[in-house]
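the two lines:
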Amino acid sequence: MDTEGTRRITSAAGLYVPLLLGAVVAVTLGVYGNVHTPTGVSVNVAGFSGPMEVKVWLASGAALLALVQLVTALAMWGKLGPGMPSWLGPLHRWSGRGAFLLAVPVAVHCLYALGFADYNLRTLAHSLLGCFFFGAFTVKMLSLPKRGLPGWTLPLLGGAVFTALIGLWLTSSLWFFTTFGVRF
Amino acid sequence: MKRNGPLITLLAGLALAAVLITVNLTVNAPGGADPDPAGFGAAAPTATAAAPATEAPATSPPADPPPSEPAAKVNALWAGPVDGGGATIAIAVTDGVAVAYLCDGKKAEVWLQGTAAAGKLELTGAKGATLTGTFGGGKAAGTLAAAGRTWKFTAPAVKKPSGLYRATATVRGAKVVGGWIVLPNGSQVGVVSVDGQPGPAPAIDPATGAVTVDGAALTATPVTGALTGN
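prediction for all of em together
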């Protein structure tokens, strides 16, 4: 992606606006989750026994796509050997979009029905990671089209987004599966 | 490469979130009457409508400080019928550990466990049951969701011998778990499950907790702290 023939002066200054907007997103989500009184209920998706089941499976789908993200990103950066098939870029982009769009309904339910929770370490970590994830994703999306950013920008942001999403999955879906069993 | 692709992705996510929130606000608009307060158990796949959470008790006059100072561990007991009747709920909090019990006195019951801290209740139970709510000013209010149903409640604080009682035992090889809610007017509701089969519970003696289930003498004890034996 950074294979432009002309050498540009790299500067992290281009990250200021994306970082600022990402921070706005993360803080907004956290404040909303705290201020909005959780309703406990939210619209459901047909075919599942309850909204929690919907969430854990959507989140699991997102986590699976995140693993695709990690592998394709490694390949794109030549970490899995030389040569990059042409479908790798589209696969990375579309798996990322899929993961993001799967995560949005989960976040809406979390924030609308449950709110920002801090009554134990799991829920606190999950709430913080959730806000961070959408902030970090915003930064990554806004940084992608920018030229002249330092080489570490995308790996760092991508790694942060990936880590946050996996952390979110571990603190929600895995907890749910181990607490209540694997159910639909 | 399409340079505005990432921006479109972000906007698509934003649009999706906006649609979902709009649908939520529409579906959960006030006025959605609960069609069948007592008939829970049949898992309805759709979230039944419920009014947005009631006014937070935290808005009560600051003159009387609630028993829940942020630093102190919460100890409290609330009990009362759910909105619309049909079931009764009790929540017992010991040092911040909350146990909630909802039952109809016939065959439906839900046990939940979680925390009460900083004016907020967060509990979960078997099969994905959840309870979220607020407390303060001598009452607890919130929403309980279980088995595809939701109940809203505003329960006043009560004192012993009112409150939440529980008994667990093994009677002739069968696992017996009973729950009782004793209300300030002396009435009580309870459900006893024998090997997972729920049924109406015989009355307990609130003074001693003595109760006879299937011919066996059991003792129901006030719930204090985390649930055991289930």
